[in-house]
Amino acid sequence: MTDTLAIHATDPFDPEALNAAVGLDPVDPAYVQVLRVATALNLIPLAIGASVFDYLLIRHIEGPYGLITALAWLIAITVIITFPSRRVSRWGYKIGDGQLRVARGWLFRTDTIVPFVRVQHIDVGQGPVERWFALSHLIVHTSGTHNSTVTLPGLPADLAAAMRETIRRHIQTDFA
Amino acid sequence: MSDTAAAAAAPPIDDDANWQRLHPATLALAIVKLGPRSLNFLPAVAALGFTGNWVYIVPAILAFLLFSLVAAWFHWLRFRFLVGDDEIVIESGVFSRQHRTIPFDRIQDVSIEQGLVSRALGIAKVGFETGAGGKENDGDLDAIGLDAAQALRATIRAHRSGEVAAPVAAHAPEAAAVAEDRLLFAMTPRQLLVAGLFNFSLAALAVVGAGMQFFDDLLPFDFNVFNPRDWIDLAGQYGLDQWVIAHRWIAGVGAGVSLLFIGFASGIATMFFANWDFRLTREPRTLRRTRGLTTRTDVAVPVKRVQAAILLTGWFRRLFGWHELRLQSLASDGEKERDHQVVPFARLDAIDPVLAEVAIARPDDGVRWQQSHNVIALGGLIGALGATTGGLVAVSFGQALGWFGPVIGVLIGAASLFGARFHRWTDMGDQIAIRRGWWKPRLTLLPHASVQSVDLKTDFVLRPLGLATLVFGVPGGSALATHEVPAIPLATAQELRHRILAAGLRR
Question: What is the domain range of residue B31?
Answer without folding.
Answer: 3-177
